[in-house]
């Protein structure tokens, strides 16, 4: 009977192989301590030699700040696909991680030229990384803009501005003090195309990728970034593309193209890297957090326009403000910048 149903048997075998392959791709792998040190030493040598190293970051660099990733074992989508609820983190209490501070210091030492991030948590900005060296491709949860003004007018807040926003619905409910138009968030949800010049800074990202001779990917599954062809110099012959180094615990679709894949937590790898480069890691100092000097205060009539917790400055720190104008606990996640990811997870479960 099985001989008569050879096609069915092959189909079942293929499905089993596919399930096993998918399971392996989701597994977290850790290099042993000695192998990790050897790999980091190789990475340090490459960074020293590189003329224009660029860093791409994903959600994995912020998990140490208690911000969940998407595809890890405790990621938003992973839990939702298992039918489990996702706890909400108080993002106002998140602070730049060791990895964020290392990246900032590497840039300061001219060992990183530009940072391209998928993260919306604003922690690169808060680490002290200059905005000119940063592309936040999917937006920043603390920034709202007026696109009615020309050039666009921007306000950085001390709270998450995405409380009322969602996919294709970006109005924050506050008004531009200049033209009266509704302010909008800067988040790029799944299924959307980002068009804002800042904080996305696609121009900076594309220019950095074009000049790059080394790309270091930290904490990203690369399942989204891989789709942005301009970041990978795919118009060049393979031998002319930047050397690729990946730090991630799980499989990524770029693994086969990497010069080196390091299986380790980002904080652990960056700590070893800084030791190899003989660079001291600065501790995050809230009194020096740029968000306080960059922030735009709410007007008196806007004080009740949100219910999100504020990032509170250290006692005694005077919060200065400036306006920026650019040329050209168990509860389920709802809204905010998890938005579309939540819906996607629920649809898959059904």
Question: Outline of this structure?
Answer:
With 350 residues, this protein is an alpha/beta fold. The protein has helices at residues 6-26, 33-49, 76-81, 98-108, 123-127, 202-211, 266-277, 290-294, 339-349; strands at residues 53-57, 114-117, 134-136, 143-146, 153-156, 171-175, 182-185, 214-218, 243-247, 260-262, 324-325.
Name the structural class: alpha/beta
Q: Give me the number of helical elements.
A: 9
* Gyration radius, rounded: 22 Å
Beta-strand segment tally: 11
Helix content: 25-40%
Strand content: 5-15%
Residue windows where pLDDT falls under 50 for at least 5 positions? 75-82, 327-350
Q: Termini, distance in Å? A: 35 Å
- The topology string of helices and strands comes to HHEHHEHEEEEEHEEEHHEH
| Major β-sheet profile | 6 strands, parallel
Query: How confident is the prediction overall: mean pLDDT?
Result: 84
Envelope shape? globular
Strand order of the largest sheet: 3-2-1-8-9-10
């Amino acid at each position: 009977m099985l001989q008569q149903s050879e096609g069915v048997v092959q189909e079942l075998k293929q499905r089993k192989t596919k399930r096993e392959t998918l399971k392996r791709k989701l597994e977290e792998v850790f290099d042993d301590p000695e192998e990790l040190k050897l790999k980091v030493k190789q990475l340090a040598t490459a960074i020293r030699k590189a003329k224009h190293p660029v860093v791409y970051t994903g959600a994995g660099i912020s998990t140490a700040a208690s911000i969940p990733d998407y595809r890890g074992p405790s990621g938003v989508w992973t839990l939702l696909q298992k039918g489990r609820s996702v706890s909400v983190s108080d993002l106002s209490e998140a602070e730049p991680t060791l990895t964020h501070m290392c990246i900032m210091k590497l840039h300061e030492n001219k060992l990183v030229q530009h940072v391209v991030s998928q993260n919306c948590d604003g922690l690169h900005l808060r680490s002290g990384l200059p905005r000119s060296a940063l592309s936040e491709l999917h937006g920043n949860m603390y920034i709202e803009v007026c696109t009615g003004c020309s050039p666009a007018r921007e306000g950085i807040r001390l709270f998450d501005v995405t409380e009322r926003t969602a996919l294709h619905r970006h109005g924050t409910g506050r008004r531009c003090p200049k033209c009266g138009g509704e302010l909008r968030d800067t988040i790029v949800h799944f299924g959307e195309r980002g068009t804002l010049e800042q904080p996305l800074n696609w121009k900076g990202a594309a220019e950095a990728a074009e000049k790059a001779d080394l790309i270091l990917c930290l904490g990203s599954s690369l399942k989204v970034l891989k789709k942005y062809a301009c970041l990978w110099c795919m118009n060049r012959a393979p031998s002319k593309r930047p050397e690729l180094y990946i730090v991630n615990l799980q499989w990524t679709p770029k693994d086969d193209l990497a010069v080196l894949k390091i299986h380790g937590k980002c904080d652990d790898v960056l700590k070893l890297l800084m030791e190899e480069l003989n660079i001291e890691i600065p501790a995050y100092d809230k009194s020096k957090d740029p968000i306080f000097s960059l922030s735009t205060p709410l007007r008196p009539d806007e004080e009740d326009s949100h219910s999100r917790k504020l990032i509170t400055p250290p006692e005694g720190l005077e919060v200065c403000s400036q306006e920026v104008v650019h040329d050209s606990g168990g509860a389920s996640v709802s809204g905010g910048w998890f938005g579309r990811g939540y819906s996607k997870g629920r649809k898959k479960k059904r």
